[in-house]
């Protein structure tokens, strides 16, 4: 029995010694990596206004929307967005408007150009209760989806269709940082 234990120990040590290597020649460099941006790139997605493509485009149009230049999006997609909005929301029936004073054509013209507007001389927010500040930028804590639901279903004073006008997510699951990069670490 003693010989078996010695033989097992000898085999284990020889396997460990055989499988270990001396990789001292491959030391890690602390230099910054050289980034290579050569090549051909293609735009795959855009999300200036989250959920717009998801809600207003049919599956067949989603990829085309993502690669269309924002300046060309309204001409290509506004009429489809308007038809979908009128099918989705009774708030726009019979010429109804949203809280921004926009009818279905004006609102979908705004949404069909998927950009994130930024106010350079005023409040920067997705919505802060003041219609004049709506879609003038976006802070991390802005409840973007609820604002979009309110503008789609809420009517002129956000009171129509209350069951459809809130995603019921009132805050981020983690507190944002007070300095760059501002986003909380992942779970």
UniProtKB/TrEMBL annotation:
Endpoints of the signal sequence: 1-22
The entry's keywords = Signal
**Official protein name in the record:** DUF4331 domain-containing protein
| Organism listed in the record | Algibacter pectinivorans
């Amino acid at each position: 029995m003693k010989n078996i234990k010695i033989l097992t120990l000898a085999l284990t040590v020889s396997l460990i010694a055989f499988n270990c290597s001396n990789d001292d020649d491959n030391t890690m460099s602390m230099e910054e990596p050289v980034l290579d941006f050569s090549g051909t790139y293609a735009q795959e997605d855009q999300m200036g206004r989250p959920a717009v493509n998801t809600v207003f485009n049919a599956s067949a149009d989603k990829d085309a929307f993502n690669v269309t230049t924002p300046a060309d999006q309204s001409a290509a997609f506004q009429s489809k967005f308007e038809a979908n909005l009128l099918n989705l929301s009774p708030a726009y029936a019979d010429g109804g408007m949203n809280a921004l004073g926009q009818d279905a054509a004006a609102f979908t013209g705004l949404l069909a150009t998927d950009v994130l507007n930024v106010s350079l001389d005023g409040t920067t927010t997705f919505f802060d209760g003041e219609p004049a500040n709506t879609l003038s930028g976006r802070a991390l804590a802005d409840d973007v989806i609820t604002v979009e639901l309110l503008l789609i279903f809420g009517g002129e004073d956000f009171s129509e269709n209350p069951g459809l006008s809130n995603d019921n997510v009132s805050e981020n699951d983690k507190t944002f940082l007070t300095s760059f990069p501002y986003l909380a670490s992942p779970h």
